[in-house]
Amino acid sequence: MARKKTKKNKKNTPSNPSDRAFSWYPGHMVKAKRELEENLKLSDAVLLMLDARAPISTRHADLEAILNQRSTPFVLILNKVDLAEPEETARWRSHLSDQGHYVVEMNSLHGRGAGPLTSLLDKINKDVNSKRKLKGLLPREPRLMVAGLPNSGKSTLLNRLVGKNRFKAGKKPGLTRGAQWVKVANQYQLLDTPGILYPRIEGEVALSVLAATSSVKRDVLPKEKVAQNLLRILHERGRLLEFIPQFEEFEEDDWIDEPLLILTEVWGFFSRGDYGPTGSAFERLLNLLSSKKRPITWETVDQLEES
Ligand SMILES: Nc1nc2c(ncn2[C@@H]2O[C@H](COP(=O)(O)OP(=O)(O)OP(=O)(O)O)[C@@H](O)[C@H]2O)c(=O)[nH]1
Ligand SMILES: [Mg+2]
């Protein structure tokens, strides 16, 4: 009689103990992280996508450490500058370049920053090929890999560099599932990768910020918590009433305790929509906080320097 096979636990359990601390860490990310390490070996340089609104939480300290160890050049791309405060983005750019990084401000959707990025890549190209020459190797187009959190705009940026929609891009985080090479004749070979979420995200506030930038699901934490954290940041930055003028009539304690209830009241959501009243208020709040009309930088250089 055939022996009954014991079912293997197919869950993608993260092997790193620090990964385990994040129960929301999606399974496919673990595989993607392993693949990314493999792809690094093939890459001459890396484009690291940061969200200009949250350059602290969207930065990959551990990936940068690996790149430094391997002496692989990388460019920090402050993407989605159209959604961030321009003065804060400029401060981030000078802060990061003062630290010796290559930095580019980018709007991958509309192409702002593509010129400076191309000049930087030309320079990297020359450096890569002079190193190859020293080793007696023939010159070739540099292999550039893009890495960054889900939804940071990796595929959109590469499409811009290619000049065509060769990479699948869109609003849903986790859209790119596997690595994909595309050759731009006589210029580069580009490698798109799935979003990698390194476990450097520390605490609820950072997670709430990542929910606001669509790097993680909006309901990564209880909605009320995400709303509380975001409203508190707006308040601290002196911008709360600009976004929600109706809060002028409320005490701080009211909206801190039950922000979504207050919002359903001021916005008049009672039983509309699929999400229920507070769910609708939450969706509207997050849409309001990621609109080009009122750019917002969630994480500032000042904040970094204070901590
Ligand atoms: N406003 C704005 N939106 C952008 C920018 N770059 C990308 N996006 C949008 O961000 C969303 C995600 O873009 P993708 O290029 O699919 O992101 P990705 O990093 O490849 O995402 P995954 O493959 O899921 O890891 C899409 O809706 C893009 O249109 C930008 O500079 N500004
Ligand atoms: Mg993608």
Bound molecules: guanosine-5'-triphosphate, magnesium ion
Assign the CATH superfamily of the largest domain: P-loop containing nucleotide triphosphate hydrolases
CATH class of the largest domain: Alpha Beta
CATH fold assignment of the largest domain: Rossmann fold
**What share of the residues lie within helices?**
40-55%
Tell me the overall shape: elongated
Radius of gyration: 21 Å
Q: List the strand order in the largest sheet.
A: 3-2-1-4-6-5
- Assembly type of the chains comes to single chain
Q: Roughly how many Å apart are the termini?
A: 65 Å
Please tell me the total number of domains.
Answer: 2
Contiguous runs where pLDDT drops below 50 for at least 5 residues: 1-23
In this structure, how is the largest beta sheet organized? 6 strands, mixed
Question: Summarize this, please?
Answer:
The protein has 307 residues and is α/β, with parallel strands linked by helices. It is 43% helix and 11% strand.
Main features:
binds guanosine-5'-triphosphate; disordered N terminus; Rossmann fold; 307 residues; 43% helix; six-stranded mixed β-sheet
What would you note in describing this structure?
It is a single chain. The protein has about 300 residues and is α/β, with parallel strands linked by helices. It folds into two domains: about 170 residues, P-loop containing nucleotide triphosphate hydrolases (Rossmann fold), CATH 3.40.50.300; about 80 residues, no CATH class. Helix content is about 45%, strand content about 10%. The chain has a six-stranded mixed sheet, sandwiched between helices. The chain is elongated, with a radius of gyration of 21 Å. Bound molecules: guanosine-5'-triphosphate and magnesium ion. The site of guanosine-5'-triphosphate has 24 residues, from α6.
